[in-house]
Amino acid sequence: MLGTLRDNFASTVSKWPDRKAIIYGDRIYTYGDLNVRVNQLANFLWRLGVKKGDGVGLLLYNCVEFAIGFLASQKLGAISSCLNYRLSAGPVGYALRQERLKALIFNAEFSPTVTEIMKDAGFCQFICVGGPVPAGAHRFDECAGFAAAEPPPIAIAGSDLCNVIHTSGTTGRPKGAAFTNETQILSAIQYCLEMGLDRGHVGMSLAPVVIGAATNFFVAYVFVGAAQVMIGEYEARKALQLIARHKVTESFAVPTQMYQMAEAVHQLGDIDLSSLRLFRTGGSPLSKPLLHRVRHALDCDVLNTYGTTESCTAITACHTGLDPEEKWESIGKPSYFQDVRVIAVKKDAETEPDDLVPIPGEGQLINRGAQCITEYYCTPNEKLHASQSWQYARDIVKVDGEGFIYPIDRIDNTIISGGENIYPQEVELFLSKHPLIADVAVCGVPDEKWGQLVKAFIVRRTPELTADDVDRYCLESNELPRYKRPKGIQFVDSLPRNILGKLDRTALKQMK
Description:
Number of domains: 3
Helix content: 25-40%
Distance between the termini: 53 Å
Strand content: 25-35%
Shape: globular
CATH topology of the largest domain: Rossmann fold
CATH class of the largest domain: Alpha Beta
Radius of gyration: 23 Å
Low-confidence stretches: none
Number of strands: 26
């Protein structure tokens, strides 16, 4: 019913060929221009042997070649596979071999990683954007010599797989979640509804477009025929200058990027950011001080979403312009096309979907929706946490009497101290409100008496902040129970975070 990404793109090109589609550096591509380059690459990939159902890897910055590669894959009925360019050759090569990718398009900056992968991937064609080009790889520019006409006609159904997004790897090796044309389009519609998009808008993703939420952001603008600015490599002042230059209306960013931009805007004088109406973000709870800082410095609202790669979408959303201020630290209520429940947590068994907690209450969040996957792509040994079509995110949340949901932490991160359950994310959110704390992470450390103690790793805004100051802040507050306050405090220069801006808790444990 929803059709395919290929047909949706063709419809947009037919209706608005002269509208701006992609802005990258000094180059502006209309939808007609973009279609020509997509067809040329599709014909090039076809010549290289890429057929319907084959995988095409995208190891790319936020650049125009991502848009061309993604859409060219859809023209052929191939499956685009969005790869995390911040990973080493090991995990990228694993994904390439696991999915038997027929082609890999990559930026020349990643040539060392790709050169290592090429030693054991004779089944794959490698296409380099920019230079120098590794031996044995093709130049992306070669596609300019191929026909701009439509590639050979392929029968594609809405139920056919079209795109693979990989999990962030916070609980182990990243896994591939594959989405059909219909689920990818439904996610685009959800994004349009959440952000109020039409073809007059201009979007820009600051987070790498190869992550699930940013890919959905990209597809949403193509879906409505709107323009997008590709930032290349992110830098806060650069992002602000692009917003002003191209009149960006919405931007997708991780919380750290929003904070950096709110700090950097004062360095740019009277820059005009009046076009910016909304930041879309996700991946962690947001404190009111951060939200107020962003809204005051950048004069825009924030849409904070919670989702999972396995759902190809946002599950819940909280909008600072539409939801009450006292609810801003929540992740809101269920978004479009999603059913959400909060169920009891059992120590040694999986809870049934009907075992609901009383409202208000605390428990594990589960969800179901038309976009949710049923299995991981090309990884039959990896099993979804699911029951009766409900997905188990393994996140502990609390829900208030009005239905607003507040994240507490992942079940797997629980610290047990003196028999009490302590959730690191709850302590982190509290500490992040201290005006002299720039970033914070909490974990449990072994203790002979209590089993585990809470330890905080803190990035200070000023060296004057001491451990005694932090302890006093905890003791004087009524918000954090005393047994949850950190017993150990270590000041660090930075914290390990992944491509989503989420804390890398595996790396954090190695800092102890």
